[in-house]
Structure formats: structure tokens, C-alpha cells
Amino acid sequence: MRCGKGSGSLNSDGKPVRVLIIAGSDSGGGAGIQADIKTVTMLGGHAMTAITAITAQNTLGVDAVHMVPTDMVIDQIASVVSDIGVDAVKIGMIGNAGTAHAVADSLAELSCPIVFDPVMVATSGAVLADADTISAFERLMRLATITTPNLPELEALGGKSALLARHIPLLIKGGHSDDDLIVDELHLAEEQCVSWSDERIATRSTHGTGCTLATAIATGLGQGMDLVPAIERARLFVRLALHDAPGLGQGHGPMGHQSVREDAMVAGPSLNQVTVGCRDYGASVDFYRTLGLQQIVDSPENGYARFEMPNGVTFSVHQHDACSTSTVVYFESKRLDAWVGELLSLGYLFDQMPQDESWGWREARLLDPAGNIVCLYSAGENRRYPAWRI
Questions:
Q1: pLDDT digit string (tens) for 294-318?
Q2: How many Cα neighbours within 13 Å face the side chain of 71?
Q3: What are the protein's GO molecular function terms (predicted)?
Q4: Where in the sequence numbering do the catalytic residues fall?
Q5: What is the pLDDT of residues 254-298, one digit of tens each?
Q6: How far is CA 13 from CA 10, 18, 86, 245, in A?
């Protein structure tokens, strides 16, 4: 079977990264194949599918499940991979033990990254894997580059200690804890751990978070990203999709994949923000609102307002006595500290080294040759979704 390794958003042939998704279909469009396709597409890849089950479900729960015969699942895999090729694989809902073993046999021929999301229970509580199927997951975990269980799935698989003793690389998702702070842990060996923590986003639109995270990681790995940056981008994608959830349905609704802005996902620096000075805060705010900009921050006591364009780029005004010297151009990068280090090694001087600011950004500042203020920063979700967004 054909595999390739990508760079950026393209594979080694200069084409979109090809991600094979082996999972069940969600008729409500919130999780499963539907969430996976949206994720791959928004991240610049080409999604291919091998559907393992057809479900009748919505935001309230799963009403019915129809398993796709194992031979048909394997035929789907063989058909797309033999012709189109594959750069990464994401495995979600498998359905039964026979299909799990057959998928493991099929994927053993591949040499590209594999992300296994051991789907057992839907967000609504519906059971999607029996004991024999869970037992068969062992083979898939051994094939996978990373396995991404949530806390209940981790226990069903035998617990963290048991899996690490069997040298199973794990990304343990903490969303099922009762804490306001969600902690995700990457374990590549017993003594090798990386963790991330973020405040829980208050929303009931959490259907498909696990599917989306695993697929985003697989897409990143297929694009040539290392595992940690791929996870970091995937976590940001999920959080932005939660912020942008459309609020559909009466239960656990779908996330807003379609509203995640490309500027938050790019690998390199991007021009995301310009701040201009003003002397009359109210007049400037009225002017830019009249132009059609959406105001997202209103802080008259600080003389600061921020606006958002339809493409996600932000623009702000800041009351300042010397308007001609108060313009600031902002460039965002996820690798801010490394970027600053590279510029320092080239002899550039900084007025401000990278530091965490009270408004949730990490910033460094320097002057361009003409004396204009340039801010290099990293904000992630806090750029568009600060705590004080109106």
C-alpha cells in the first residue's frame, strides 16, 4: 500500500495530505466520520473513509446502530489506499472484535502515522463497544503511533500503569474529570510525560470532541509535524470549535468546526492584528463600527477597543496622546520564544523580551528600522476569545 510523508499542509508529492478515517457514521453530524471529515478539511487535508457502522443518533443519544460487514470495511480501506495512497490514519469506532482484528491486519502493511481513538461510549452515554471488542483493541494500540483514551476508556483498557508497562504511547484526555481545569497528559514512556491544562469551556456542545482531537492529531502527523506540536494544534482546534459551537439540538450539540479560522492554525507567523492610536475613544469606536467592523472588546476606562473582521483578523484602537507614534503591528506565532531567540542571534534588539501579559497574550516588542513598534506574540484562543469578550 502507498504511503507518503508530508511537509506543511502537503504530502511528499506536493498534494493535500491524505488522511484515512476508519470510524462510524453519526447521522447528527456531530461526531464520527462527519466530524472527522470536517476536521481534516479545515486543516487542509483530504479525508478518505472506511465506515464501520451506521448510527441513527442526534444530540440526545444513539437510537440505532447498524454494523457494516467486516469485509466491506476492509474493502473500503484497500480501495482508497491502493489508488489514492495515505499519509496518516485515524481509527475511531470499530464496532466488533472481528473488524478490529481485520483492521489491524490491514494496517500492519502501512508505515505512516496511526492515531487510535478507542471509542467505547458516546457523549450521550450509549455503549459503542462490547468486552470482546475492547479486548481486541490491544492489537490496534500496538500499531498506533498514539492512543487517545478519555478517563473512562483508560480504565476500561486496564489503566495507565498497565498500558505504559506494555509500552503503549498514550494521550490521556481529562475532559471527563469534574475539575474546572482540564488536564491532558501525553505519556510516551513511564518517565516521559508532557501535560497541557486549560480552563473548561462552559458549553453543552461537546459532541465529537474526542473524534475531532484524534483526527486533528493524525492530520498534523501526516503533514510532517512532530507529535507534541500536532497535539498542541489539535487541542487549539478543538477549543476554538467549542467556542464557535452553533448551539444545535436539545442535548450535547455539535461543535463549530466550520467556524475555526485558518489564521489560528497556520504553522508560521501571521499578520493578525493592528492597533492604531486615537485621541477621542468614543468617536473612533463609532467610526469603525459604522464601517461595519464587529466590536468584540469595549474598555473605555483603558481607552481600548478591539474589532473583528469576517476572516477572523482583529483590529484595535487605543487612546493615546501621541497618535503618530502609537501604531503597533502584531505578528502571531505559536513558537514565539524560539522566534525571538532566532532574531536575537541575528543581532536584533528587543525593547521587551517575551512575557505573559495580564490580558492572556505572551508578547515581545521591538522597533523596525523606521521606528514603528512591532509586537511578536502568541495568544491562541485568547486573541478572539478573551475573558472580557462582549
A1: 999 999 999 999 998 877 788 899 9
A2: 0
A3: hydroxymethylpyrimidine kinase activity; phosphomethylpyrimidine kinase activity
A4: 173, 206, 208-211
A5: 999 999 987 777 777 888 888 988 888 999 999 888 878 899 999
A6: 8, 11, 12, 35
What's at 293, amino acid-wise?
L
Which strand ranges, in their side-by-side order, compose the sheet holding 181-189? 62-67, 46-57, 18-26, 88-91, 114-116, 146-147, 170-172, 181-189, 192-199
Beta-carbon neighbour count of residue 211 at 10 Å? 31
pLDDT, tens digit, 9 for 90 and up, residues 85-131: 999 999 999 989 999 999 999 999 899 999 999 987 655 555 566 77
Q: First vs last Cα of the chain: how many Å apart?
A: 51
Closest CA to 283 of 319, 258, 311: 319
Phi and psi at 312, nearest 5°, equal 95, -10
**Cα–Cα distance, 27 to 240 (Å, whole number):** 23
361 and 316 Cβ atoms separated by less than 8 Å: no
3 state DSSP class of 157: coil
List, in order of start, the domains of the chain with CATH numbers. Answer: 16-259 (3.40.1190.20), 270-383 (3.10.180.10)
